[in-house]
């Protein structure tokens, strides 16, 4: 079972001899094949949560486990989609997607089959030999998503993957991610500061407080989505018009506003 | 503020004026009688001598044979500098402990002029190929190492994180991430390195060789043929320029491919 467990996770930063508590008492289990979005004000430590699951940072207290193993270092079983894409500019689209498969020692025939599959799934046909700088931001992020999915990882970690995209591209990518997630359910931890994106994509939403980051509330979206049959609508704007969607969105907004309200500035 | 580039017409006119001016000053000085023509030949004396050197062997060989002989030594020393400098630079960028281990010795040696190795080149290799290769290596190696190292250290952390997340081994991270990321810096280093290497090679040939452009110049001095010495200088200048132009082409090609 590929779940993600945060067990009493704490993260303290030391700066100029002073200690800052970035995260404390984070207890969260992302179930197998569950899509969980973390939302919170800037600097609440949501990205740090994702990076600890990836093994790119380490908790100063408690532990993070993926598939019941303590995370110690990054690895292809926990694929990350970064906000800044982080595609290798010197590699073609094909070679970028192939990079992780080579680490996993996947046989050449199987590599080819899987890359072709995800190139089709992400609508990248015809761009196999293009370099990242020749693609638009949206296309680049499709490559980054394909590069992560093609590894067939235990969990997917996404750090504001659509944050650098323009509004229209963002909507298209959100719809595609929903399609991908429903067709091919994975354990996903998704970081965002966009409330609508979280409500649209996630099974559950974790709302965090300002620093020191703690969990304010966990909201179940999936049961409402299924009860109200959101997936009958393919367009994001139709879903966003549904009263149940609006209600949830407003609820999450209020929780976040509460956090902003405590802001001394 | 840096001034805008000159319009092409003005660019070429100024180039022509500068070059002509140089030749005029040189000719006037040679003809003025300040010093004997044998000590300062006029430009046309050099051109005539250049033509002679291409057909009549001097110091054992004709001019282009000397140039080829120098280029062969340069090629070996430069190739050795690249073969050691690039991998070592990448390893030092990836493994901090190696960086610490190598840096003190490297810093101690790199400010020693390549020509200072001549005594050792002579003692260890006599007039064999090893001497000049050692000296050119000493000139060409530091810029390759430094630029590879700096280029690799300046790689955006996001690429390193992506590589680690994708399960890359240290070897793959170095060859497929650090190396390509450092390529623009490495090629810039190669240009400096080739220039220094070519300069130190000719210096070495003045002392420890029996062929090559430097050797030609020593022999020219011995027979008080300053025109021969200047032909050597001319050959050095032209070959150096060609090497730099080739490397600059490579640099532009890489930058274009990367969309820099």
How would you describe what is shown here?
The complex is a heterodimer of chains A (265) and B (260). Chain A has one domain: P-loop containing nucleotide triphosphate hydrolases (Rossmann fold). Chain A has 265 residues and is α/β, with parallel strands linked by helices. Helix content of chain A is 39%, strand content 24%. Chain A contains nine helices and ten strands. The two termini of chain B are 23 Å apart. The mean pLDDT of chain B is 89. Chain B is mainly alpha-helical. Chain B has a single domain, classed as MetI-like (MetI-like fold). Classes of the chains: A alpha/beta (265), B mainly alpha (260). The interface between A and B is medium-sized, with 27 and 20 residues.
SSE layout and pairing:
The complex is a heterodimer of chains A (265) and B (260).
Chain A: E1 4-15, E2 18-30, E3 35-39, H1 46-54, E4 61-66, E5 69-70, E6 78-81, H2 93-103, H3 108-121, H4 137-149, E7 155-159, H5 167-183, E8 187-192, H6 195-201, E9 204-208, E10 215-220, H7 222-228, H8 236-241, H9 243-261
Parallel strand pairs in A: 3-8, 3-9, 6-7, 7-8
Antiparallel strand pairs in A: 1-2, 1-4, 4-5, 9-10
Helix pairs in contact in A: 2-3, 2-4, 3-4, 6-9
Chain B: H1 8-31, H2 43-55, H3 63-94, H4 96-110, H5 118-125, H6 130-153, H7 157-165, H8 170-207, H9 213-222, H10 226-258
Helix pairs in contact in B: 2-10, 3-4, 3-6, 3-8, 3-9, 5-6, 6-8, 8-9, 8-10, 9-10
